[in-house]
Amino acid sequence: MSDRETDGALDLTQVRTFLAVYRAGTVTAGARLAGLSQPTVTAQLQALEKRLGYQLFERLPRGVAPTAAAAELAARVAGPLDALELAIGRPAQAEPAPEPPVRLAGPAEMLATQVLPALAPLIAADVRLTVTAGLSDELLAGLRAGQYDLVLSTVRPRGRTVVAEAVTDEEFVLVAAPAVAVHIDQEQLRSEGPAALAGVPLISYAADLPILRRYWRHVFGVRLTAEPAVIVTDLRAIAATVAAGAGISVLPRYLCTAELETGTLIALLDPADPPINTGFLVRRPGPAAPHVEQVAQRIRTAARAW
User: Fold this and answer.
1) 46 near 38, Cβ under 8 Å?
2) Which residue range forms the structural domain that includes residue 81?
3) Same domain? 59 vs 147
4) Which of 158, 160, 155, 157 is nearest to 278 (CA)?
């Protein structure tokens, strides 16, 4: 079979279906978006791939992952097809299919304290969300596999399969409760470094003390070799544990601003060059569904105030 119709044009219905699946991330969600049955969508995608002569999606256990060729095709056809839809409108008998939920993922603490409150107004505009919390590396792998539409990552992604934009910088602060801080010679800490913290329990996100090690290296210029007294994989829980007087830790400032202002936590140091971690908004290349774009833009706008 030729990859073109006899008049030289691709089948627009198949191209519309392709774009719906590309934007939705799964065949099932794409079928809802296109107002078609799932078997029909699958058949149209297979027919389009046969016409074009190349694969558009890799089938995964959960969803589909667009190929580089699919991203290129979507970039070419999205604008003209959207303009055509606006020009001719939908058939009078067709009910507009609701957009699928925007699949958003990121660190639990950032989602809970910054991102979701910023997105709340979009819910009144019929934007739906499915939100997943996790570690950046795992979430970026899921994005590449088509499981998510947008990922907030504290790790800079590598490779050309995703597009990342820096949206925020988080400053890290060494904190303690007042009852613990009173026993730490902060003048000695400023002049002599971490020797002033000998014997003080460390509260960490992981056994290898990733955030604490980075702070020690950046501020004190030394390698941290210690065992954490408490390991808890939620920075909000670390803040609560430190505030209760269990020990010291390093937290992003956005997560402990209120506690620092009320005195529940004390910043043990105020270095001129504090450690900074950049947060990225990451997506697959190519055009996105309107609600995905709305969510992304809302995050960009809100991030300017974080």
Assistant:
1) no
2) 12-88
3) no
4) 155
Domain for residue 107, yes or no? yes
Task: State the residue for tokens 């505009």.
Answer: 125
* Tokens of residue 8, six digits: 């030289």
Rounded to whole angstroms, the Cα distance separating 35 from 239 reads 47
Distances (CA, A) of 294 to 151, 282, 304: 14, 14, 16
d(CA 163, CA 148): 13
d(C-alpha 53, C-alpha 48), whole Å: 8
Per residue in 9-41, pLDDT (tens digit) is 678 888 888 888 888 777 887 888 788 888 898
Identify whether 1 is part of a domain.
no
One domain for residues 202 and 271: yes
* Same-domain pairing of 68 and 111: no
- pLDDT, tens digit (0-9, with 9 covering 90-100), for 166-221: 999 999 999 999 999 999 999 999 998 999 999 999 999 999 999 999 999 999 99
End-to-end CA distance of the chain: give it in Å, rounded.
55
This prediction has a pTM of 0.69
Helix (H, G, I), strand (E, B) or coil at 86: helix
